[in-house]
Amino acid sequence: MTAHLEDFGLGVDDYGVDAPLDHQPAPTPAPKRTRASASKEQLERPRLAGPARYGLIFLVTCLVLGLVGSTFLAFFARSQDPTKTADPAPATVSQPQPPAAAQPDPTPTTVPATTVDDITAMTWQGYSMPVSASAGPHQLTDTRASGFARTPVGAALAALHISVRMAPMTGPNVFRPTITQQVVGHDTSKQLAAVNAQYQQLAKVAGVSGGRPVIGATPPFTGYRVRDYTDNAATVDLVVTNPYKNTDLQYTIPVRWTNGDWRVVFDPAATGGGWFTVTKTNPSATYQPFTKGTPQ
Question: 27 to each of 21, 24, 115, how far by Cα in Å?
């Protein structure tokens, strides 16, 4: 059986021959090669068919593009590598700086003194009242005491002088201006009415008229301590000796710095409705005497 190239889909133009696959031609003597015959042989040498030629061209083109692309990628990766830094800038020589000026030590915070050495005593309506040239009161009349220093001792003296003048036995000429002008807080007008009613009872029993004070036994003030002090507020504990039972009681009196002076704070919610909270003295507390002596 003879098979031709056309049987496999190949034409004469593909290989330039059209001979049976099982045909073996008889050998012929090789002709003598000349320059003209060589050129003719090259012209007659079989060439690649169309599809094969195009495939080769496509393969070569891919290789060239791949080489160009890999070169570009390598260059681009190098330019984007964060580890590749630009050439360092030339180092600058720093100029010597003068030594920093020494900063002064901060002023230490001083704790306000709770005692003074200039407290003396004066008598007012039977009371022995401590007064101080430095802590006050700086304005002192028969009915008023004001002008206290903005210090712990000034707060303690204000608590004592104002609280004494709030009492009903001092008379309306004293307790009225004291309560209306030197007491701040809630329901002071209601408390003033209650103090006035108490005075009327005392005056009737004592046979006193005309708003004069009702003088009786007066308790001595034997000590004090100032707690929670700031420039705007403080809590003063006054130690008062009961003249009838000879026992010490602690009167807790809050004060507040308002309009240039200390004023007593009335807080009925904290005192249960009374002017102040009254308890026994605290055995573990240290109370300072108003005048020179040993703290209690």
Answer: 17, 9, 144
| Residue positions counted in the chain | 296
Report yes or no on 8 lying in a domain. no
Nearest alpha-carbon partner for 155 in 117, 114, 118, 120: 114
Cβ-based neighbours of 90, under 8 Å, separated by 6 or more: none
Q: How far apart are CA 296 and CA 293, in angstroms?
A: 9
What are the tokens at 23? 């045909």
Look at the chain and report how many structural domains it folds into: 1
Q: CATH number, domain at 210?
A: 3.10.450
224 touches 230 (CB < 8 A): no
Q: What is the pLDDT of residues 151-200, one digit of tens each?
A: 999 999 999 999 999 999 999 999 999 999 999 998 899 899 999 999 99
**Amino acid at the residue 140:** L
Question: How far is it, in rounded angstroms, from Cα 132 to Cα 158?
Answer: 11
Q: Per residue in 257-296, pLDDT tens?
A: 999 999 999 988 888 888 889 999 999 999 999 886 545 5
